[in-house]
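Sat 14:20. Reprocessing the chain from the morning session after the first attempt stalled halfway. Input below, unchanged.
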Amino acid sequence: MRILLFGADVVNKGAETMIRTVQSEMGKRMVEPPSFFIVLPKYFKATEDQIVSMGINVIERQIPRKMFRNFDIILPIFYLPNLKKEIYKTKQLFWGWRKLMKNFDAVIDIGGYRYGEVWHLHHIMKSLPVVLYAWFQKKPYIFFPQAWGPFTKGTKIFNLCQWMCRKATLLFARDKESQKYLTELLDLSLDRINLVPDIGFRFHPSTDYEDEIEEILINKLRTKNIIGIIPNMKVYERTEGKGKDNYYLNRLIKLSNYLIEEKGFSIILIPHNIDPKENAIDDRFLCDLIYENTAFPSKIHNIDTVVSADYLKTFISKCELIVTSRYHGAVASLELNKPTIIIGWSHKYIELLKEVGLSEYVLDVTFEFDDLINKVEKALNEKEEISKMLKQRVLVLQEKVDGLFDLVSSFLNA
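Finished this time. Tokens:
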């Protein structure tokens, strides 16, 4: 079976985590070994070698000759006439998908968080040709667990997302708030919307990096008393100031100094968005700023190269506590039963920690530094109790994820 993984890339390590998890879990369950494909946009071309090394096939969307391009927007305009103007404006998004979809037997959407009013309409419309041509060609389109919403009734985003969801074969929300948004979008009762945790709870990294990372801890940091900090460019962009004077970043710098000077920890700076293109601005930009502006750089290990999700999760496994603004950084930490503090910008962060009984450890992006320190102190003081609780709760979440893969595999096997 040839399965297209849509919304997937390896720049975002959460997306890479989902690719690896689908690949592993579906591979165990499918009668016919599946082949997975990613259609790679030009701006992600630098990641092709990494994707191929994972055993994923990269396929290009071939743009038709000029005289045939309008054929690819006839169906979208026919089915969504209220979006005619927007389809014309973004017609290049549709070129080639009508023919390309014939290569696949099914589509699994692992976008994570792509659908809601927080995104621009253009961003969401990238999914429309994939959903439309999968549905028109009678290929299953499955929205794997992800965050949804919010939606405002009557807007173009509302109408577009509603249409796409109604054409999907299966659809899952990964948190209760998203489930509620979907009930409003689709006018369904809660019991009609499948609720399944993030599939990252079933991601088990390779052990290939254990020796390398142990050497860093012993020879460079010379300690195993480690706290991990995972910054996020989206939070940086949502807060005031530039560089080290940015509201969010300044507090992460202060946190690093506090943990080193007052608590005796060393710090690992863990980027979760890593773009291999030259001069790309990603989470490593923030890690560099923290590293360069702390008073104790010798007590910090800054991951500043292109690495895999396996590598990062192995580092997370060595930490006593994680302070993160990346969703899948939190999922990795929680799956490893680590006390986890989130500085987040959307409902998905609150809902994640609610699920494991740690909702008090979420901070808004406008957080006060003292609030952050208080949560760090509390988490460290209660780390054994937190880890014990997480061990029990994560097992329940993993069982639900297993149920998802059983359901989807059975459906596709049939």
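DSSP finds 18 helices and 13 strands in the chain.
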